Amino acid sequence: MRPFLYKPSLLNLAIGSCIAFSSLANAATVAAIPQLSEAKSSVLAKSCEGFSALLTANNTVIDSVETVAKGVLKLGDNEVEEHCLVRGKMHERIGEVDGKPYAIGFELRLPKKWNGRFYYQANGGLDGAVKTAEGALGGGPLTGALLQGFAVISSDAGHGKGLPTFGYDPQARLDYGYQAVAKLTPMAKTVIQQVYGKGPDRSYFAGCSNGGRHAMVAATRYANDYDGILVGAPGYRLPLAAVASIAGAQVYASVPNTDKKDLKTAFTLAERTTVSKAILAKCDALDGIKDGMIQDFKSCQTAFSIQTDVATCKADRDGTCLTQPQKDAVDTIYKGVTTSDGTRFYSSFPYDAGINDKDHMMWEYSAPLQRDSGAVAMIFNTPPVDLKDYSIRNFNGADFVWPSNIDDLVAGVNAVSGGYKESAMSFMAPPTPENMSTLRDNGGKIMVYHGVSDGIFSVQDTESWYNALNSANGGHADDFAQFYPVPGMGHCRGGQATDQFDMLMPLVAWVEKGQKPEQVIATARGEGNPGGVNDELPASWSANRTRPLCPYPSVATYDGKGDVESAKSFACEVPQSM
């Protein structure tokens, strides 16, 4: 039976606010937020090379300015128009601790036909590379900010390699965390002014994963510099998430007969697929249709129990059941790992159909030893671990992970010591993330999306942030902020999901025209998709299945009669239980 749902006029009804009071307060809040004007386009008449000797900015070296012809860059089948490519670096120096050279490398791409907007492309992982400043959007990108006429900057965030050894340099830590943005933003706007004869009318900041963390930081620290913030899978508490990843690996290693060199022996693909099927059996129909997608992920957490809905092995493991120690280990991780006194220090994770996706397994099994170990040891821990010659060759992730005391790691990401005057949770996290009053009062907007099957940053952590933001705004965060859980999607992309979408232009329309999004249409990347095929899509899906992504707390709900492969058959509605 399809659950009864209703469409309230205010999303904050789900938080339990009084209807009459909320309506009046919401009207007052909307009236207090200014409406920003629309950006105006401009055409660059001069050749790119003509600017080589003219571009200047403080603490900046311009290495090159060149023309990039139309079609040299493509997104999907779309050719990027002719533009100028400016390459350079800022704040060159020698590290006081490790004696290595540092600088903030960047590239800035400036369209000949400019739409009057600036886009800061925040990159993921440990940064350390100047990625192409195209501002690509969606799981398999068909469009991007540069293609749509934005001036786009990309940077390495202050270090030249994506290795955690930069964490021995105190300033490199701070640049990676937040200061590179503070230095690059005015430089980029100065160059834009010199090239077009005017600065950007509107400025946008976007990124996913660590880039989403950068975007959350920008929404708090640099709200006066940006009008719109687009946040994907925000690791806004990245140091704690990395420690939680290590703690999860330790839990998996505790399962009897687990090989520490191959953690998937704790919870195999076959066993994960059994659990995924059990989750779907309990939760797939909560949105009105069995279609291989769990739209109502919150209700699913109540409906499904790994303890009772998955068979307990009575003999040997064969992939169709879990032993009791396995169930307890998985439940410990998904409820949120804790310190020794039982305090959860990061977040719980939702049970979702994507528990058996390959990306999800990589984050749970490989990442703790191959990625998070180095980041925690050298960047987030204060002081960083001793390492001969500051060389990654002298570090072994397993030797760090297995003997580590989680209490000590949690303390380390909150500590300061000697020349490391800011803790990791200070330089990496947005200060008071529930306070975005400057962005709000300036007329700015923020849109956040997060895959429900993300295996490293929990969508429930982002949900907690949004609820705190909503509370801090008297139940009216949706006047300037929206949160979009993406059913089935893994970390930034992929999974059993419709993960191809453009959330930037809806953000622009909201910022500059006051057109608040009611939904964002997303497409599956099946056979023939020009942005790249998602090989984790179920064979039963249409190659181009569409779904509405819905602003929290609404969920995509089937209308009971339409084409199950079409977004037109679904509406964003708030479950009565909320």
Please explain how this structure is put together:
- It is a single chain.
- With 578 residues, the protein is of the alpha/beta class.
- Helices cover 30% and strands 17% of the residues.
- The model is unreliable at 1-31 (pLDDT under 50).
Features of the shown structure:
single chain; 578 residues; alpha/beta; nine-stranded mixed β-sheet; three-stranded antiparallel β-sheet; 15 helices; 20 strands; 30% helix; disordered N terminus
Average pLDDT, rounded to a whole number, is 94
Helix/strand/pairing category: alpha/beta
What is the domain tally? 3
Q: How far is the first residue's CA from the last residue's CA?
A: 18 Å
Rg measurement, Å: 24 Å
Helix tally? 15
Per DSSP E runs of 2 or more residues, the count of β-strands stands at 20
Q: Which stretches are low in confidence, meaning pLDDT under 50 for 5 or more residues running?
A: 1-31
- How is the main sheet built? 9 strands, mixed
Overall helicity: 25-40%
Kindly estimate the percentage of residues that lie in beta strands according to DSSP.
15-25%
Present the secondary structure layout.
Layout lengths: L4 E2 L12 H14 L9 E2 L16 E9 L5 E2 L2 E2 L3 E12 L6 E11 L1 E2 L2 E6 L13 E2 L5 E2 L6 E5 L14 H27 L5 E7 L1 H12 L6 E5 L5 H16 L15 H15 L13 H7 L2 H4 L14 H12 L22 H23 L16 H5 L4 H8 L10 H4 L9 H5 L3 E7 L7 H14 L8 E6 L17 H10 L6 E4 L22 E4 L5 E4 L11 E6 L3
Parallel strand pairs: 9-12, 9-13, 13-14, 14-15, 15-16
Antiparallel strand pairs: 1-20, 2-8, 3-6, 4-5, 6-7, 7-12, 10-11, 17-18, 19-20
